[in-house]
Amino acid sequence: MSNSDWITPDWPAPPNVRTLSTTRNGGIGSAPYASFNLGDHVGDDPLIVARNRSLLRAYLPAEPLWLKQVHTVNVADADTAAGIPEADASVARRANKVCAVLTADCLPILLCDRQGTVVAAAHAGWRGLAGGAIEATVAAMHADPATLMAWLGPAIGPAAFEVGAEVRETFLAQDSGAAAAFSTLGNGKWLADLYRLARLRLMQTGISQISGGEYCTYRDQERFFSYRRDHTTGRMASLIWLS
Question: Among the CATH numbers 3.30.470.20, 3.90.1150.10, 3.30.420.40, 3.60.140.10, which is that of 17-156+206-242?
Fold first, then answer.
């Protein structure tokens, strides 16, 4: 189904739900974008990006709906959208409509229902999580959250994501239970667990079947791009579609 360098999510999705998460390996390119950058907005050679997207396309039923991701809660309809919507998530109900998000530390979340009738992909950094990106995506799926499942893809891990006190305060103002997702470093700095924050938000919407969350893009330089680590770097894609 995919290049052996990439990740096939391990979750109990229906057989007609197809998923794929790329790594930094398996394509072409030179440092600091080596070697499978899919982001066309990070300063890489456009011809290299186009070639890598073409290599990815060979594993997909159609061109993905690429998004202009700007840390919003906008959700695009992959069944009908044209061009490059300004959104941080997309939803599809028709076969072979590929939802995709690009990340390099932010959290990619793939969702589907147990019946295999709707899928979604969401891009969630801390701003997106705090702003309601998960809730907006779940609402756009128009399905009973109790029937949904989620997979958390590669993101910066809880031992590497240093944030200021204002980030912690933002989450605690919304949910005191979010305190468990932060550990103090002193001097007003905290380590934030994006995976735990996402799980809390997903469970609050009514989703209980949640997989993934074992990666750290910052620590695993061989497999993943990381904006926090390298600043100038590529982007990976997490994709989902109905067959």
Answer: 3.60.140.10
